[in-house]
Amino acid sequence: MEGCLFCEIAEKKRPAEVVFETDEVVIFKDANPKARVHLLVVPKKHIASVKDATDGDRALFGGLILAARDAAARENLAGYKLLFNVGRDGGQVIDHVHLHLIAS
Ligand code: 5GP
Ligand code: ZN
Q1: C-alpha 85 to ligand 1 mean position (Å)
Q2: Rg for the chain (alpha carbons), in Å?
Q3: pLDDT in tens, 65-76
Q4: Ligand 1 lined by 87 (C-beta under 6 Å)
Q5: Does the first or last residue of the chain, that is N or C, have fewer Cβ atoms within 10 Å of its Cβ?
Q6: How confident is the model over 34-60, as pLDDT tens digits?
Q7: Domain 5-103 classification at class level
Q8: Domain range summary for the chain, segments of one domain joined by +
């Protein structure tokens, strides 16, 4: 999507510290980390928010969670938090779905 920060990162039009990538997902370090480990697990498909997902996106969301699990395993994290902020009132600032992977 034109002008979307995370689409631009996924398309390599904007730099990011990418730690993992598949055809469907890119995982990169949060630019303003809230903990020792703070990764963003981002689908390459533009979906503005969890609220905007369709039934056809069920597999995509399952893939995001398992991609996060795999990234956590590679980082040898014993435990972590997975978080979607949804909508402005839910703390969402970037309007492209992303799963926060956070560990201290
Ligand atoms: P939200 O509040 O939308 O759930 O989270 C957006 C996250 O994206 C924030 O934690 C913020 O630090 C991060 N972020 C914002 N802009 C950039 C950027 O240009 N690059 C990276 N790597 N992270 C960003
Ligand atoms: Zn986007």
Answers
A1: 11
A2: 13
A3: 999 999 999 999
A4: no
A5: C
A6: 999 999 999 999 999 999 999 999 999
A7: alpha beta
A8: 5-103
